[in-house]
Amino acid sequence: MLVRTLDEITDTDADVKSENWRSKRIVLAKEGVGFSVHETTLYAGTESFFWYANHIEAVFITSGEGEIEDLGTGEVHQLKPGSLYLLNDHDKHKVRPRTDITCVCVFNPPVTGREVHDENGVYPLVTEPTTEPEPAAV
Question: Which of 1, 39, 119, 121 is within CB 3.0–4.6 Å of 51 for a Cys-Cys bond?
């Protein structure tokens, strides 16, 4: 069993910051569970372009408001607490928070925590060995 708090992650290598957002990576590829989980804050008044060409991402909004634009269709969707968007087709998109948005993000395949968005908004597919769980006592 893994139990981890955001306080344990704050200001460590798993706390990744940019001009537009901050992402606390709670579960990473090294845990070997097939997905990663992050708490991300998107800053009010910014616009972020993302394209996860190598990952599927689900995003659940826990606080704040804004919008997401699907760049493939031009559709704009409003975001508020309780909204979820799933980038199930490697969708190119822009997120525009009106207020700070806090969300929980799940990535498959999992990220290692070392990824950086490239000039196309893409995370490279980085792999690393997983931490094997201890065998159960019999």
Answer: 121
- Are 113 and 27 in contact by the 8 Å Cβ rule? The answer is no
Give me 11's structure tokens: 């200001």
User: What does DSSP say about strands 36-42 and 76-79: parallel, antiparallel, or unpaired?
Assistant: unpaired
Q: Model pTM greater than 0.85?
A: no
How far is residue 126's CA from residue 74's CA, in Å, rounded to a whole number? 30
pLDDT digits (tens, 9 = 90+) for 64-121: 999 999 999 999 999 999 999 999 999 999 999 999 999 999 999 998 876 655 566 5
Q: Do 68 and 86 form a contact (C-beta atoms < 8 A)?
A: no
Strand partners, 48: 95
Six-digit token string for 23: 């992402």
| Contact in structure between 30 and 131 (CB atoms under 8 Å) | yes
Judged on CB neighbours under 10 Å (0-12, 13-18, 19+), 45 is exposed
- Contacts of residue 88, defined as CB under 8 A and 6 or more positions apart, other chains included, come to 56
- Residue 135, burial from CB neighbour count under 10 angstroms (0-12, 13-18, 19+): exposed
